[in-house]
Structures are given as structure tokens and as C-alpha cells.
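Q: Convert this sequence to C-alpha cells.
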Amino acid sequence: MFDRYESGEQAVLVHIEFSDENSREDLHELQMLVDSAGIQTLDVVTGSRQAPHPKYFVGSGKAEEIANAVRACDAQVVIFNHALSPSQERNLEHLCKCKVIDRTGLILDIFAQRARTHEGKLQVELAQLRHISTRLVRGWTHLERQKGGIGLRGPGETQLETDRRLLRERIKSILKRLEKVEKQRENGRRARNRAEIPTVSLVGYTNAGKSTLFNSLTNADVYAADQLFATLDPTLRKVTLQDVGPAILADTVGFIRHLPHDLVAAFKATLQETREADLLLHVVDYSDEQVMENIGQVEEVLTEIGAGEIPQLMICNKIDRMEGVAAKIDRNEDGRPYRVWVSARERLGLDLVLQALSECLSASMVQYRLRIPPAEGKLRGSLFHLNCIAAESYAEDGDWLVDVRMPSTEWHRLNKQHDGNLNSFIIRNQ
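A:
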């Protein structure tokens, strides 16, 4: 499909500092991504600019410096810590005589290495195809696909057009298969809702320690390593909490600043576990110097995927790397836990996490007795659909008397769907 250079495992890294805060990236994070991809760094070229150059992203002098570094090190790939346009990639490859990939391409490569399940592989392929579709080059257009005798001469379909058509067909096929996976996940969630089992989703910046915490709380054996994107495929496990009973804990893919939109779109089914959760465990590496920036990036992605309104419990992880910090629960003015300090690796404070989880989930459940008139049959149908009705009887005037128990997030969502009128049907709190 491409007239492009072969990539290898030895790279020259390029990091440019911009004055604009939104365009800035972290060089240390790039080196961690490169290590996670199993690539050896031979040289790092740095520089600063006010804005990207349209031809090479960097200036022509800096582009020559990169090309010289490639020749001096005999590198097979140049990795930019920024998003490049297709034309910038091609111009740089022509100059450097080797493969050039940007930050998005590097993250996609790591995801392709990590995917284990059928669903994960499909999602990665979809993201890669969407990324590739903007980078098809007119390398084979001199090869006409159709030729013939008199009356049949003409260029026909060029190879580029064929490539685009094949890509579109493959993307359509993957989307259909992912639709089936999403339906299967939806069925699993409905079964959990019927059994009134709350779901807790672990979210956080990549390499914050989510999988280590998940393993410690559930005795699972999910792969955990000190590298970016060690977890790709979501894993669900059941835990038993005091005063709540069984709950489902979901380990999910880590977030990263400027997460490629292709990935957000491709991992829609996976991120659905986060969107539908009753509570988010926001795991934070508090020993990281950029902890506040990382928290901001996670909040940004949560808002982007529609999970910004879900209640959170922050888990401040890796206290074993910090001096004078002990495992504890921080509470707000109402006495509700909002932050727990732990070390998942050293198993410090795990009992406090379970205690805080129990308090948050029991507080997040609402129980009401409702009086629903016959004209509001749609509301009664919604309650049955949510499987939250504990008991039902009839009043003398024909109204339904319904006892409901559900997560407060579901109650607020339902209230919004019924124009905020649900409170008028409440007889009493249970």
C-alpha cells in the first residue's frame, strides 16, 4: 500500500519545545513510550519554535540536522514527539531516507504489540487503518489497473483509488464486528444491573499503577509492568464489599496527554465500561513531578468520552516513593471519602481502599417509595427496564406504589429524562 521506507528498532528522537502550552509534550514521556515499544534510542535532537513549519514541522536547518544524525547513527527510524501531517512525514522521509513516524504512530505501534483479545486487536486495527487512510501516497498511479484493446483503453482505477476502497471496506467490516462486541458487553452490563451489582472502573494516567492495584484488590494476575500502556484489554473481576455486597471492578486502558482521537473512537466499546460505571477509581502516581498535569489530562479525556459527571474516588498511589506519607483516607466536610493514600506494590492501605469503596457505593445508592399515576406508565416501564423495582403494590385509587433501589447516578439520569419531575412522585425515602 505504501512507497515508504522500512522501519527498524533503532531510532533518532525529535523533541521541539513550543511556547504554546497546548502544543507542549514531555521528552521523558516520549523516551518511556519508545522504551515501551522496544525501540533503542541512538540520539535525541531537540529545538524550539514558535509554531510548526508547514514543510518539515521543524525549520529546514533543523531538518538537515536530523538527517545528519540519522546518517551518523545509521538509524532506521525517526520518531517525533508531536503529531505530523502526512505531507510533513513524506517530506522528512525523503530528506532522511528512512521511516518517520509521529507520536500517534508510536502509540498505535505500542497498542498493536499489547493487544491480546480479539476485541483489542480489532480496535487497534481500526485505529491504525484510520491513521493510515490519511497517509496513502500517489506512489503507484503510473500503474493503471485496466488496459485493453480498441474501445477499452483508459486509466481505469488507479492503485491509490483501489487502496482507498479496500481501506474503506475493511474499516466497515471491523466496525460491524465491533458492534457485535459492544452488544455482548451491553448484555453483560444489563445482567449486572438486574442483579443490582455496582460497577467500579479504574481510570488514570498510563503507568499510574492501576493494574497493580487491581491485582492486589482482586487477586487477579493481570499483566502489570513499569511501562506505558502495559494494560490494553479491559478485565473485570468481582470483589465483595462490606454493606454493599458484590461489586465489579474493571481495569481499563490508561490515558495519556493528547490521546489520539482515532484511539478514542476505536476504543469506544472498551471505554463504555468507564462511561457506565457507578464509581470511578482515579488512580494517580503521586510521586510523579507532573502529577497535577496528569490529573488534568485524565479529567479532559473523561469529559471527552462522556464520563465527566460520574462520582470519583482518588487513589494516591506509590506513597512508598514519598517521604513522610502514610496510608490514610481523606474525607470532605460531610465525612465522605474523596481520597485514599496507598502503595499498591507494597500492599499498603488496601483495606482503606475497600473501606472507602464500601462507604462511597452504599452512599451512592438511593431507595424511594414512589406513587406513580396510571398516566405515567412510561416511567414505570423505565424503572422495570433498569431492574430497580424491589416491590410493587396498588393504591385504592389505582396508582402504583413502587419501592425502588438504584445508584444515584441512574436516578439523576432518569430524572433528567423525565424533565426533573421524579421528585414529585416520592412518598418517602426508604
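The radius of gyration is 26 Å.
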